Every structure is written in structure tokens, then in C-alpha cells.
Amino acid sequence: MRFALSLVALAALTLPGFAGEFTVGFGEADLTPEIGKKPVYLAGFGQNRKATKVHDAIMARAVVMADGDEKVAFVSVDVVGLFLPSVERVREKLTGFKYVLVSATHNHEGPDTLGLWGPSPVQSGVDKDYLKKVEEGCAEAVKAADKARTPATVRIGKASDPDLLNDNRLPVVKHDELVVLQFRQPKTDKPLGVLVQWNCHPESLDSKNTEVTADFIYYTVKQLRETQKCPVAYFTGTVGGLMTTLGLTVKDEKGKELKDGTFEKAERYGRLVGMLAEKALKSAVPITLTPFDIRTRELLVPVDNSIYRLAWSFGTLDRTMYLWEGTPTPKKFTATKDVSKPIAVKTEVGYLKLGDLEIAAMPGEIYPELVLNKVQTPADPGADFPDAPAEPAIYDQLKSKHRMLIGLANDELGYFIPKRQWDEKPPFCYGLKKAQYGEMNSVGPEAAPVICNAFKELAKGK
């Protein structure tokens, strides 16, 4: 009898879905908008920038990983951002997942999915039908990835290149580390897929472009698909600060400098990022991504930005506001439409430990200073809050050898700026005659302290 039971147990080890078996699958969905029937407002720069044609596809790309029957999904979509309510609707379409992360690449050359770039400052640029298509597409990409799951081994690689980033806000602090995960078939070593994470604004085409495109990410994915012969999913990371290609010297293979706002620069830069990923793959090492430890927290972040408050009052930004009573985690989240009082937005922060890999899921565009423990010390005398304590650095909370940060994860709250580097009022920092770019696209100076402290608590298991 014991012998028979042992045979049953041994057979169970070979069955799909048995606890402890790591599987992975990749899936995608084409979300390219139709041009011509109604205006498609492009996001990321000024208002009323209408798309005239499609250059390349807008995609949702998903990766599903499973430890036996316990599944987590990561999906990245080539748009400027998605608010938490959209992410919640994606999750409602999916069942059987321990966790679903939805991130936007922060593409500045795709359709407006937030509302800020419509025909005028008080008119949303969101096409509700298209937004529904995006949400459904994210879910379909996850379902396709789930269906494609197969046993896999994993390797992780890292590579850095500060010359591939321009930080156009002082102080210059770059997060120039690229992280790549490579999944392979255990018996044949055949590539199953690549997940790559890099930290740069997809805005190479600049503000005058009117063609729908995923910007440099299209070419990064293309480069890696050509060389690795497998699906590729790109995720954005630390893009605040501002990590950008604009103003960055990029030369073609013959040494000619390429101009901002051109597809030539977008392609060359995208392929250079792909080559950096290939460099990371060459030095990749085996990693275990199980078991899964997923910790998330819903919290309130106060909204002080007067433009955002007006946009919500006009309905340009479509999401619920909540009363702000001084604490990020009140006993009750109370919705309000009265923006004359202190208000806050509900968001989500995530800490993920996948075996030997720790991942920070940040709901916006975090500054490198806040990730790498490089908040300016002491503060510049011109800063608005020079005595504000430095926020707990995100990477200081991650104790594993391997780590990664996914930005615009499950929400888009704009920039998370170190409070002691906040600089709206004169005299301005560094002797400048006007304020630097950043604060106008942040919910407020308390965002970074609230987010970073919440993440510290999550990482400690509080």
C-alpha cells in the first residue's frame, strides 16, 4: 500500500500545475488605435496634438509566471499611463491570479489614456471606447500568456551605461542600470522569452510628431526579438528626474549625430538599449523566482497640485478623490467632490519577492535620488523645504542580491520628487532664474515621503 502511494506521489510530481514547478508564458495584444473616424489625441506634450497616421503598433505585452498553481502576471502597455481604476477593471477580467501588475511604458507618442492632452486644457483627450480596448487588451494579453505557460529555467543579467541617459534636471543623478530576465526551456535550452526593464522616457519623437508609435521601445523589442528569437516584454522603471533621450547625443553607425524628433534617433536609441540588454544577457546568471511573496497596500496621497485639482473638478481627469485628513491609511477612505478642502487620491504600492528577486512597484515616475539614496544633502538653500528629512531610499529596503523597479505600476501619479529638492518658489535652486521642470507634473511635495515610507513598511512586512 505504501509502495502504491509512493507511485501516486511520484506521478503527481510530473503533472502540470503541481506545486513547486515554475512555468512562464508570454502573450500580447495589439492596441493600435484606428485613425480617421474620430480624433486620436497624442499624450505627453501639449494639448490638441492629433494623430495623422500609424507608424508602428501600440501593444500590450504580458508575462505570466507560476509556482505550481500560484500565478502572477505582469503586463506592460505602450501608453502614457493608466490610472488605478483602469487597472482594477483589468484585474476584474482575470481570475485565479495571486497578483496582477499593470504598467505603462509612459510612451509620449501614443493615445491619451489619462485625459490631460485633449483639444484644450479643460477637455479630456481620452476616448472611452479606446480606453476600454486598452483594458480588455491588457486582460487578453495576460490570458494568452497564461495559456502559453510552460516549464522554464531563468537567468538574470544587468548592465549599465550612463551615456544612454540624459538627466535634464539638476542635480544630475542617473539610474542607468538595465535588468533583464531570460526564460529558457529546461531540456532544449530554447529561448522562451525575455523581460527587459530600463529607465527612460519614451519621447524621442518629441512634441511635433503626429504619427502613432511606441517610440524607441518598438525598436528595442524588435532588436531583441531578432537576436533572441523569442517574445520580448519591455517594462519602464525610474524615469523621473528627468531620465530622457531629449538632448542626449546619439550617433548612427557612421558617427553622424541624430536629431531629436526623428525616427532615425528613435530607432538608433532603441537598438542601443537592445544591445545593452544583449550585453546583460551575456553575463546573466541562474536565478530562482519562487516562492512568491506579494505585499501591496492601498493608501492616500494628498493632491496639492492646483492644475490637477481643477482638472478633476472639470472632469478632465476622471477618478475619485478622497478627503485628506493627514494620514495615508485612514480607517475609512471617504470619497469627496469638494476640491476646496484637502483632498487625496487613492493609489497602490507594491513589494514583490519572487524567489531571489525583489521588485519595487511604484505608482508613478520616481526620481533616481529616491531609489539610489542620492537625495541632495545638504539641500540647496533655494529649495522650498530645505529642512525636510530625506525619504527612505527604495533600493535600501531591498536586501536580495537581485532587484528591479517597475515604474507607473498600477497607477500614474506623475513625479515623486524628494521633498527637500522641491523648488516652485523663488529664490530658485542652483542660482537659476526660473523653476526647473517637474513640480507641475507631481501631485505634490508629500508624494515622495508618503510613497517611500509606505514602501519601507511593506518591505519590512509591517
Can you describe what's shown?
- This protein has 462 residues and is of the alpha+beta class.
- It has one domain (17-462).
- Helices cover 22% and strands 25% of the residues.
- It is built from eight helices and 22 strands.
- The protein has helices at 2-13, 84-92, 128-147, 216-228, 263-282, 306-314, 368-372, 447-459; strands spanning 22-30, 53-54, 59-67, 70-77, 99-104, 150-151, 153-160, 166-167, 177-184, 191-198, 211-212, 232-236, 243-244, 285-286, 292-302, 321-323, 335-336, 343-354, 357-361, 365-366, 402-406, 415-416.
- The strands form six sheets. Strands 15, 16, 17, 18, 19 and 21 form a six-stranded mixed beta sheet that branches.
- Helix 2 (84-92) links the parallel strand 4 (70-77) and strand 5.
- Helix 4 crosses helix 5 (263-282).
- The longest helix has 20 residues, at 128-147.
- It is globular and about 60 Å long.
- Mean pLDDT is 95; it is low at 1-18.
Secondary structure blueprint with pairings:
Layout lengths: L1 H12 L8 E9 L22 E2 L4 E9 L2 E8 L6 H9 L6 E6 L23 H20 L2 E2 L1 E8 L5 E2 L9 E8 L6 E8 L12 E2 L3 H13 L3 E5 L6 E2 L18 H20 L2 E2 L5 E11 L3 H9 L6 E3 L11 E2 L6 E12 L2 E5 L3 E2 L1 H5 L29 E5 L8 E2 L30 H13 L3
Helix pairs in contact: 2-3, 4-5
Written as H for each helix and E for each strand, in order along the chain, the element string is HEEEEHEHEEEEEEHEEHEEHEEEEEHEEH
Which spans of ≥5 residues are poorly predicted at pLDDT below 50?
A: 1-18
Structural Rg: 22 Å
Instruction: Please summarize the sheet with the most strands.
Output: 6 strands, mixed
| Percentage of β-strand residues | 15-25%
The overall strand count is: 22
SS content category: alpha+beta
State the separation between the terminal residues, measured CA to CA.
47 Å
Structure annotation, total helices: 8
Nearest-integer average pLDDT: 95
Number of domains: 1
Shape: globular
